[in-house]
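WARN retry 2 of 3 for item q-0093 after timeout on previous attempt; input resubmitted unchanged.
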Amino acid sequence: MAIRKIRTIGDEILGHVTKPVKFITPRTAILIGDMLDTMYESGGVGLAAPQVGILKQIVVIDVTEEGNNPIVLINPEIIELSGEQTGQEACLSVPGKAGIVTRANYAKVKAYDQHMKEIIVEGEDLLARALQHEIDHLSGILYVSKVEGDLVDASVEDRR
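OK item q-0093 returned
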């Protein structure tokens, strides 16, 4: 697979709404693999297709310390949110910055996996935050629009 260039804040593609994936083509399978490689190489916990310049509803997430439990979500839809958490959030598309964001502490998402099999993913804490953050990207929303206060300088470690 390949490492793709991550689009950064100011790139207009990050503000666009994405299109649903109808079926998996060989190009889509390559994209998913490239997104995983790019996410791991960049030290992130999630990546959405618009961040690599593709306006499709595809998200990859891995919140494990080992980086060995990837979640692939195609056409994800949040079906339940509850609770509340407030904490620091960062984004590969906003390098070197972080900010305080309040999100639901629990998220339940319906999506398709890389084989177009319907799945339900439920998560709390960091996984819930990552699900909401990455799905926002599919609607052209960057976390900076939800930051409480100012953005602050952040290191790579703050992304996890």
